[in-house]
Amino acid sequence: MWGIRKGAVLHSAIAKAFEYIAWVFYSYFFIRYVVGAIQDERGFYHILQFILISGGFFIIVALYYSYIEGAYIPLAGTIIYQKLYRKLYEKAGNVELRCFEDSSFYNRYTLAVDGASDKLILVIQNFFGIFTGGIAAIVVFSTMFMIDKFVVLFIVFPIVGNFLFGYLYHKAEYERDKAMAPYKRRIDYVNRVMYLADYSKEMRLSKVFHILKNKYEEALQGIIKTADQYALKINVPTWIRNYLTFTVMFEGVLMYGAYRAIVGKSIDLAELAVLSSTMVSASWILIRFTESLMECMKQGLFVENLRTFLEYEEKLPEDYDGIMPASEISSIEFRNVSFSYKEDCKIIHNLSFYIEGNSRVALVGHNGAGKTTIIKLLFRLYDPDEGEILVNGINIKEYNLKAYRSLFAAAFQDYKIFALSIRENVLMRESSEEDDEKVVDALIKAGVYDKIKSLPKGLDTIMTKEFDEEGVLLSGGEFQKIVVARAFAKNAPIKVFDEPSSALDPIAECDLYDSIMKESIDKTMIFISHRLSSVRNADMVFMLENGTILEQGTHKELMALNGSYADMYHKQAKNYLAVEDLQEVIA
Ligand SMILES: Nc1ncnc2c1ncn2[C@@H]1O[C@H](COP(=O)(O)OP(=O)(O)OP(=O)(O)O)[C@@H](O)[C@H]1O
């Protein structure tokens, strides 16, 4: 907090100090002086003057307090919110991809993000509440002790009430919130699915809504069950705390004081008035003090979680600094690489291959063979469990990660279109009209420029209707072409295309592969394709199965081998062209 907004820390401290000073002053000095002055018959104007001066002081304190609580802290809260969330998102953006496949990471993340800035402010305010409240409690109890030694015994009730039972219910509340976090995440997921347009078609054409509705209700039941489980653990200590703090303390001190003043006549009226008012203040100060303590502990647990999240040491930090890679690519090599997403489930098995710089390489194989995983490893989205990956003869772990990733221009299979302009969707960075030539060229190569040109706002057209009434929705193939244009537009020495034509018609597919081949003449290019006709011009084809290379060579070599690749090719050609005699096609 000090790092983000010093003023908020200082004003929280001053406001808390004033709050308690005003309390102690009113309950002890003010009442004692006024009742004493009446008893000593000091005169109306003298007392009025004292009341007015004290009133002025109270008004100033109250105005300052309201300004801090009502205006300054909420404003500071927005700045804290902005800076803290930036830190949170930076962290989430910097952790390795694997974290997003770990549900305990998600739970920690959700708990950290949930009202993080409010909790941080609460901890600071309550921290000063403990400090100044502790001093105020000592002053008030000493005053009571001076009037009557035995009356302080009544303090035991609010102390036990607040410290023991207050602690129990705060702890139970934290545990309940923690137990509810996975259910809340499930509810958030269903809310997201219902809200996002991406899911709307499937939702309308299937009965998946019912499954989601059931999941939602299950999660809701989970929340209700958790609330039920913790109801007694929270309510009983709350009731006992209130009973001991208010009823026993208030009534006890009042009856005891009245007995001493009326029956025993051992304290006078001023002392009885001071006793009653300090008793009320003492109770409140104690409540506030323990509330601050408990709140600090409770929010402290959230803040601790936030801190653990922010201090999580990335195993593969996105901002990893290392040597800068050369922009010319001479080789890419996988050396005995093994990898698994989860323990005991190897996806890549002792894989080794070598790619010459400036060559065009195709990865082919059945679904789930591990092609995309190889690309993810090459992008260093994951690190191998065994073996090493080398680019230009250097282990990729030694490179500055951002600079290393900038070597690649990629079109992903599971692409995402952003609710931004077409220009921004192609460049994937901030852009201006000066970039138009590059964007247009990329869109032409991807075979979608004619369509974009026909749109009234051209490159400025916003994709999707999320924010803009005039936003456009394109066909699946057109969307995919825009994604492919990303790889054309980025000036990078290695181009990667993961199933770039899965949504294209045969003519568009053919044109696209022509463009890709032309584009990659002086570049290293890796592409994944299920359409084997598209790999005929590759310099090297790797046929994968179960995370290892089954066959490798040029298309011709693999056909001559007459193994798995040739078999797959025959089957595809047969189905695709619906011809019996393929000799002509193969030739
Ligand atoms: N994030 C992940 N967590 C766990 N397992 C995964 C993950 N991503 C992929 N897998 C598993 O790894 C295996 C290989 O997946 P990969 O995407 O590399 O295959 P692929 O050859 O590209 O398949 P396709 O041709 O269908 O795209 C699959 O069995 C898949 O279930």
From TrEMBL:
<dbReference type="InterPro" id="IPR027417">
    <property type="entry name" value="P-loop_NTPase"/>
</dbReference>
<dbReference type="GO" id="GO:0005886">
    <property type="term" value="C:plasma membrane"/>
</dbReference>
<keyword id="KW-0812">Transmembrane</keyword>
<keyword id="KW-1133">Transmembrane helix</keyword>
<keyword id="KW-0547">Nucleotide-binding</keyword>
<protein>
    <submittedName>
        <fullName>ABC transporter ATP-binding protein</fullName>
    </submittedName>
</protein>
<dbReference type="GO" id="GO:0005524">
    <property type="term" value="F:ATP binding"/>
</dbReference>
<dbReference type="GO" id="GO:0016887">
    <property type="term" value="F:ATP hydrolysis activity"/>
</dbReference>
<dbReference type="GO" id="GO:0042626">
    <property type="term" value="F:ATPase-coupled transmembrane transporter activity"/>
</dbReference>
<feature type="transmembrane region" description="Helical">
    <location>
        <begin position="44"/>
        <end position="65"/>
    </location>
</feature>
<dbReference type="InterPro" id="IPR017871">
    <property type="entry name" value="ABC_transporter-like_CS"/>
</dbReference>
<keyword id="KW-0067">ATP-binding</keyword>
<feature type="transmembrane region" description="Helical">
    <location>
        <begin position="20"/>
        <end position="38"/>
    </location>
</feature>
<dbReference type="InterPro" id="IPR003439">
    <property type="entry name" value="ABC_transporter-like_ATP-bd"/>
</dbReference>
<dbReference type="InterPro" id="IPR036640">
    <property type="entry name" value="ABC1_TM_sf"/>
</dbReference>
<feature type="transmembrane region" description="Helical">
    <location>
        <begin position="150"/>
        <end position="170"/>
    </location>
</feature>
<dbReference type="InterPro" id="IPR039421">
    <property type="entry name" value="Type_1_exporter"/>
</dbReference>
<keyword id="KW-0472">Membrane</keyword>
<dbReference type="Pfam" id="PF00005">
    <property type="entry name" value="ABC_tran"/>
</dbReference>
<dbReference type="InterPro" id="IPR003593">
    <property type="entry name" value="AAA+_ATPase"/>
</dbReference>
<feature type="transmembrane region" description="Helical">
    <location>
        <begin position="120"/>
        <end position="144"/>
    </location>
</feature>
<feature type="domain" description="ABC transporter">
    <location>
        <begin position="332"/>
        <end position="571"/>
    </location>
</feature>
